[in-house]
Design a protein that fits this description.
Layout: H1 3-8, H2 15-24, H3 28-38, H4 47-54, H5 58-70, E1 75-80, E2 86-91, H6 93-123, H7 129-140, H8 145-157, H9 163-175, H10 181-194
Antiparallel strand pairs: 1-2
Length: about 210
């Protein structure tokens, strides 16, 4: 990093910001400029300031900025300052949107791994590649993790450790419009009042296996 920048600032980055910057594999100048923008309350595109603070030439500053724009990490917005004059303000929304998306993807991956582990625990064995694909297929078609685990419990309650049976349960629940365990509970309550339980309708939530 340039001497001018080190003398002027102490930079603060969150763990998520640091991890994201490292994963981007940007050229040094682009990384320095991004870190500089992150630490500004209102990043303004001022080449003279960038030249002084980062020891960049105008060409280096613009190359680094264009690299950040090309990688969809920053965008330039025109805003009026307190004097009513338009100025170019750097927005970091694309950068933080990228972090948010990765955090969500990581969470989803962790949840999927958890579902696999639950199935393997209930089945008492390692799942086959085809069974992994079936679970991923259910999730990709919009079956919630909550409902998928409920269908597994339904099958176990009925003594059937079979993916076809679980698929049938999911299909039947889909026809009834069930999206969550609350939908199942509401249906059970209605059936109890009518004293007419339908297929797969029992209160597995009260069952500890």
């Amino acid at each position: 990093m340039t001497r001018g920048l080190l003398n002027q600032f102490k930079f603060v980055l969150t763990e998520s910001e640091l991890r994201e910057i490292k994963s981007l594999n940007l050229p040094n100048n682009s990384s320095f400029l991004l870190i500089y923008f992150i630490n500004q309350q209102k990043p303004i595109l001022n080449l003279d300031d960038l030249n002084k603070l980062l020891d960049f030439t105008s060409t280096e500053a613009m190359d680094a900025l264009n690299d950040l724009i090309k990688n969809n990490l920053v965008e330039i917005n025109m805003q009026k300052n307190i004097n009513g004059k338009l100025e170019e303000v750097i927005s970091l929304n694309p950068f933080y949107t990228g972090i948010e998306m990765k955090l969500k993807e990581n969470h989803q991956e962790q949840q999927t791994v958890k579902i696999f582990e639950i199935f393997e625990s209930e089945f008492g064995r390692t799942l086959s590649p085809m069974e992994y694909e079936l679970i991923n297929g259910w999730l990709s078609t919009g079956v919630s993790e909550e409902l998928l685990i409920a269908a597994l419990k339904e099958a176990i309650y009925n003594g059937v450790r079979n993916f076809r049976y679980i698929d049938k349960i999911i299909y039947e629940w889909g026809k009834k419009g069930f999206k969550s365990t609350k939908d199942i509970e509401d249906n059970l309550k209605r059936n109890k009042k009518e004293d007419n339980q339908e297929l797969f309708d029992y209160n597995w939530l009260d069952n500890d296996k």
